[in-house]
Specification:
This is MFS transporter. The chain is mostly helical and about 375 residues long. It has 15 helices and no strands. It starts with 6 loop residues before the first helix and ends with a helix.
C-alpha cells in the first residue's frame, strides 16, 4: 500500500526509527562483551566463548525468514514492540545465571528477538529516505547505530561486568526503545497490503550486497566477542580493552555520514571497495600497536569507520534498487546474511586466536575484507 507522506512525516519516521535502534544497539553492544568477560572470568576457552557468542547470530538466521510475513500480518511497529519486550525479558534472565549452557539457549532466543527490531527499522529508513540523499540518511543511521554499539562497551567499562547491574541496564534500554516506537508509530511505512516476498531469493538478486553484510557481521562478531580477549592478551587492562572497543565503534560515529555523502556523489560500489581495503590494512597493523596506545586507538578509529562503511554502502544500494515488500524481504535477507557472518566471526576468530594468538585475530579479519574488496570490484566490472 503506497501512502504519500510529507517531508516532515518522513523526517519524523526516520528520526524515530534511528532513535529506537540506537537505544537498542547499546543493549547489543553491552551484552556481547559482557557475556564474553563473564565466561572468560570463569576460565572458558576463547574457542568456546566464540561458539557461545555464535548463538545470537544463529537465532537471527533461523528467525529472519519469518519476519516479512509477521510484518505483513501484524504491522511493523507492533512487531518491533514485541521484539523489544522479548529482548528485555531474555536479558534479565541472563543476569540470573552463569551457566554456559543457559547462555547458549538464551543467546539463541535473543538473536531471534533482536532481528525483528533491525528489519523493521531499516525498512522504515530506506522506505522513507529520498534517493538523492539516501547515502547520507543511511550514514546518519549507521552513525547513530555505532553510538549505541560503542556506548555499550563504554557503559560496561564504567559499571563493570560482575553482578546484575549491567543486565538491568540492557533491559531498561529495551523499555526506552519501546517508548520511542510508540511515539512515532503513526509514521511507519505500511506494507500490510502487499504480498510477502521470500528473503531467500535475494541470494540471486543481490549477492554482493549480502556478502558485504556477511563480512561486516563477521567483523562485528569478532570485535564484540573477542576483541576484549585480544586486548587482555596484548597486556591491556579490562577497562582499557573495553574502551578501545568503543573507539572502534566511535570511528563509525564520526565518518559514516561523510562516507554516505561520498557515495551519493560517486559510486556506492567504488566506496565499498575502498572501505574493504582500508579495513584489511587496519587489521594487519593492529597486533603491533597495543604498546603505543595513541597510535593503536587512532588505527582502531579508522578501522571501525571503514568496516562500518561496508554496511552503509550495502544498505544504501538496497534502498536504491528495491521498495515495498521487496525491501522488507531484502532487509530480512540482510539479517540472514548478518546472522551467518556473526555466527562465523566469533568461532573462526576464536579458533584462530587459540592456535595463532593475536595474529589469528588480525589475519582472519584482513583476509575476509580483501576477499570482499575483490568480489565487489569484479561484480562492479561485470555491471
Amino acid at each position: 500500500m503506497t501512502v504519500v507522506m510529507s517531508d516532515g512525516a518522513r523526517r519524523a519516521g526516520i528520526a524515530g526509527a534511528i532513535a529506537c535502534t540506537t537505544i537498542f544497539a547499546l543493549t547489543v553492544g553491552l551484552s556481547f562483551p559482557l557475556l564474553s568477560l563473564v565466561l572468560e572470568h570463569q576460565g572458558i576457552s576463547e574457542a568456546a566463548i566464540g561458539i557461545n557468542a555464535a548463538m545470537t547470530p544463529l537465532g537471527i538466521v533461523l528467525a529472519s525468514p519469518f519476519y516479512p510475513r509477521l510484518i505483513e500480518r501484524f504491522g511493523s511497529w507492533q512487531v518491533a514492540i514485541g521484539s523489544l519486550l522479548l529482548s528485555a525479558l531474555l536479558i534479565l534472565s541472563m543476569g540470573l545465571t552463569r551457566s554456559f549452557g543457559a547462555f547458549l539457549v538464551l543467546r539463541l532466543m535473543l538473536g531471534m528477538a533482536d532481528v525483528g527490531i533491525f528489519i523493521v527499522s531499516e525498512t522504515w529508513i530506506n522506505q522513507l529516505a529520498r534517493p538523492e540523499t539516501r547515502g547520507r540518511v543511511v550514514g546518519i543511521y549507521a552513525t547513530a547505530l555505532s553510538v549505541g554499539f560503542g556506548a555499550g562497551p563504554f557503559t560496561l567499562a564504567l559499571i563493570g561486568f560482575q553482578g546484575f547491574a549491567p543486565f538491568a541496564v540492557g533491559a531498561v534500554c529495551c523499555f526506552l526503545a519501546i517508548g520511542v516506537v510508540l511515539a512515532v508509530r503513526a509514521y511507519a511505512p505500511d506494507v500490510s497490503g502487499e504480498t510477502p516476498v521470500s528473503p531467500l531469493g535475494f541470494l540471486r538478486r543481490a549477492p554482493t550486497l549480502l556478502a558485504a553484510i556477511c563480512v561486516y557481521a563477521f567483523w562485528e562478531g569478532a570485535m564484540l566477542s573477542l576483541f576484549p580477549v585480544f586486548g587482555l592478551a596484548a597486556g591491556l587492562t579490562v577497562a582499557v580493552a573495553t574502551s578501545a572497543l568503543s573507539v572502534a565503534f566511535l570511528g563509525n560515529t564520526a565518518l559514516q555520514v561523510p562516507i554516505g555523502w561520498l557515495s551519493d556523489r560517486t559510486s556506492r560500489r567504488q566506496v565499498m571497495v575502498l572501505c574493504a581495503l582500508l579495513t584489511a590494512l587496519g587489521a594487519v597493523l593492529l597486533p603491533g600497536l597495543p604498546d603505543r596506545l595513541p597510535l593503536f586507538l587512532g588505527v582502531l578509529f579508522v578501522f571501525g569507520a571503514t568496516a562500518g562503511g561496508i554496511y552503509t554502502m550495502a544498505m544504501s544500494e538496497l534502498g536504491d534498487r528495491f521498495t515495498g515488500s521487496d525491501l522488507v524481504a531484502g532487509n530480512a535477507a540482510f539479517a540472514i546474511a548478518f546472522g551467518v557472518g556473526g555466527m562465523l566471526g566469533g568461532p573462526i576468530t576464536g579458533a584462530a586466536m587459540q592456535f595463532m594468538g593475536n595474529g589469528g585475530f588480525a589475519g582472519g579479519v584482513a583476509l575476509i575484507f580483501v576477499a570482499m574488496a575483490a568480489l565487489a570490484h569484479l561484480r562492479r566490472r561485470r555491471g
